Each structure stands twice: as C-alpha cells, then as structure tokens.
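Q: What structure does this chain adopt?
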Amino acid sequence: MIKKLAANVKEFKGDAILAPIFVALEVVLDVLIPYVMSIIIDRGIKVGNMQIVWFYGGFLIAAAVLSLCFGYLSGKYAARASAGFARNLRQNIYYRIQSFSFSNIDRFSTSGLITRLTTDVTNVQNAFQMLVRIAVRSPLMLIFSLVMCFTINPLLSVIFVVVVPIVGIALLCIVYKAHPVFERVFKTYDTLNNNVQENLTGIRVVKAYVREEHEKEKFGKVSQNIYANFSKAEKIVAFNSPIMQFAVYLSLLLLSWFGAQLIVSDTMTTGQLTSLFNYATQILMSLMMLSMVLVMVIMARNSGERIVEVLDEESDLTDPATGLTALSDGSVDFENVTFRYNKSAQKDSLACVNLHIESGQTVGIIGGTGSSKSTLVQLIPRLYDATEGVVRVGGHDVREYDMHALRDNVAMVLQKNILFSGTIKDNLRWGNEDATDEQMQAACKLAQADEFIDGFPQKYDTYIEQGGANVSGGQKQRLCIARALLKRPKILILDDSTSAVDMQTDALIRKAFREQLPDTTKFIIAQRIASIQDADKIIVMHDGAVQAVGTHAELLADNAVYREVYQSQQKGGDDNA
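A:
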C-alpha cells in the first residue's frame, strides 16, 4: 500500500526531501539551545562573567532566528509536497475510474468512490504532511535530547529510559484499539454519502411523496452511527493526553527530587538541571507529537487501503495490442452469447442469444421489465463483455477493436438521459467537439429538438443546469438523441429514449432516421409497439432470452406474447380516444 501511494509524489519528490532536511536542522538548533542556556547559567550568571552571557546570548538569538527560518522552510516544502501528492493521487484515482468497465463500477458504489476522492484523499494528505515534518522532528528530537541528557548526567537520564518505553507501549495499545473503529467509521461514510446523493438526486420524488421526514430519519440513523463510532474512537484516543501528562509530571518530579540531591551534594550544577528540565519537556513533547502522528496514521491507513482498492482494480475490459481502428459497416452478430454480471450470479442475464442484423437495418427490441433488453445492446459498444460466445460488429469480434474506435462508431442514448451543466452547445459537442453550428442545428432538427431550442431566449447558448433540471423529460431525451447523432455513427442505439415524447414527435423522429440515416444500423428499445412496428426486424425478449424475431406482421401472426401486447396497447389507445 505504502509503495502504491508513495508513487504519487512524483515531481514533488524534491519538496518531500527538503522538508525533513530543514526539520532536522531545526531540531539540531532546538536541542542546542538548552545546553547553551546551561553554559550561560553556570559560567556566566553564577560567576558574574558578563562576557560569557553576551557571547552565548548572541548565539541563542542567532539559533532562535535560524530555527524559525528552518521551521518556515520545512513547513513550506511540506505543504507543497503534500498538496501536490494529494493532487496526483486524486487525479490517478479519477483517471483509474474513467478506465473502468460498467462491471468494475458496479463493485464500488458511487458514494464510495466520491468518499475516496474527497475524505480519504484528505486524510492521506494530512498524514503525509505530518510524516515529512512531525514524524521526522519527533524521533530526531527524542534521540538528540536523550543523547544530550546522557552527556549531562547519565544517572538521571535513566528516568527517561524507564518512562519512554512505558509511554510507547501505551500508545501502541491505543493505536491497536482505535484502528478497527476508524475502519468502521469510513465505511459508514459511504452509506451517509449514498443517502445524501439519493436524496438530492431524487428530491422531486421525495417532495412529491412527502417523504422528507422519512429521509431525515434515514440520515439521522447513519449520522448517529458515525457519531457513535467516532465517539468511541475518540474515547480511546483520549487516553493519549492523560498518559502523556502523567509521564511529563512524573519525569519532572523525579528530576526535581534526585536533581536537588545532586546539586546539594555538589555533583551537579544548577544549569545542568535546568537543561535537563528542558530536555525532559522536549522528550515528552516529542512522544506526544508522535502519538498525534499515530492517530492520524490510523485514520490515513484506513483511507489509504480504500484508495488502493480503487488503484489496484483492473478493468475487465482491455484493448488489444493492435486493435482495429475502422468499422467496415454497421452489421451486428450475436453468436451463442451468454452474459452474467458477475461470476457469483446464480442466473444468466442473457442466455444463448443468436442474432444477425445487417448494416443499415432498423431493429426494434421489446420485452417486459427485466428481460435484459438494455443488457443486450450494451454488449455492442463493449460496455460489458459477453461471458460466453461472441459479439461481432462489422464482421469482427468487438474485442478485436480499439475500444475508443469502436465506441466512436456506436452512439448510444441510455435509458437514463444525462445532461451536464453548461450550454446546449456544450452538451451537443459531447457527440462531436468540433461540430459547427450548422451541424448542431441539423442534428437537433433530426431529433425534433430545434423547435423548443428556438423558443429559448438564448437558443443554443441556453444554460443547462446540472442533470438537465431546467428542461423537461422529453426535451432532455431529444437533446440526448441530437448529441448521439452528431457522432454520425455506424450504429445508433436508443434505449427507451423516446418514452417521454408524444406519439407524433416519436413518429417524426423515426421518419427522420429512415430518410436521413439509411446506412446507420438503428436499435430501438421501446415499450410502445407503435415506436418499432415499422422496423425491419423486431426482437421479442423474455427472461434474458430471444423469444422471437420477425417483422411486425410476422410477429402478429406467429407470436402470442407480441400479439397480446399489441392488442392491449391498441385497446388502451381506443379507450383513450
């Protein structure tokens, strides 16, 4: 884990090295100051030698100024190194997520990935900054101060040899007890973020069903869980302070008792005892700072493990070394295709699918909820890979293509239409970043979106709120279709993408497809038979299997399920009329 995280320091290695160097220089000066003070007391003040006082007093001032400068520089370089480290780490996590297949993303919740990119990275960043400063300063201060103590009086220094190990063991016990509690806390953070995300995304549904109190209760339970776990962790960590205070006062008390006897017996000077007091404080403060580092490292360890989970996750989809970069046509073949979302699944989502679609055909797909209509078409652009069998596009296995080239030739309007914050033009250019105004207008005309866009005061420069909150469902669907058309794809997939538009607009869109996109293979998933009845081929799906394939007339004559659905929809239409 440490090696994986440390690799993200990259161009900030120099800062990460300079920070502890300046810390070490600062520590050397801080350790020298008590020793110089003892000289001033014993050789200057005690005997009235002002020359010694002035000389070493000047040295103390210079040492203090230099220590201040070194402290500033160490802080500056540590801050730069930790901020750069966090930036690189956050980027690497984000880039890794972008390479994931849908199945990889399914293993992590969206809220869990957000927590890793924010809270977990911040925890690791803070720990890194403490490691290059405090974790260097404290051990050096501890060692140098102990050396100086033994130099001054080995006998009294035995006090520290006894106290320090006891404190160290106590701190390790705190770390051991607190670690699993912090681990639970960060897992609960994922649940909290998930609740918040669901609530904000579905806020209209929450208000429509007057479920605010229910959502508050859900949030309150998770928040209380985090509070309880954090409180438990903090109670364990809180033992750190009294243990350290006890060690400090015990050491000072023992030093005072035995030191006073040594002074009375003339085997120790007042200056030496004063410097030992200072060194005692430095030693015990170093231990206290180390305990703080340990607490931060406990939290960062859990966060680091969660981050490395993402960095270690390998995409299920890999590009071939020399992948094909061109599709000859938009023909699609499914040969004995079986698919499961994960290896532990008890049932196949798709079972033994065999289909042949010629380039330029319009293919309708219909079936009940959960019949795997969306799953079937998601195998075409390799959003998932078939578990068994082969999916061919343009006569080649989709796994032989460069993924970027394949997906660039397959435009897909997903069941859940997503628009991003920005202007209408910004959203349309997701289909073609170099699209001209004329090309965007032509695509919107095909998708029957030009009329409502022209009705906006700023037309194509109209700002779309996050998620398309300021446009209707039908307008959102048409904008997403126009965005897909700008790719000029060889294969166009509409996954129930006209469900929010009226029948007349739906018919106009299909007419435009027939007339303007004759060479594009079109897959249309729909619940309304009217949306697909003029397709060249209609696929009827049931429970992950292809139940029947044919034209509208053939299926009406030969397939009872299709006929039943058609008649029920026709009856519904007659009733409404």
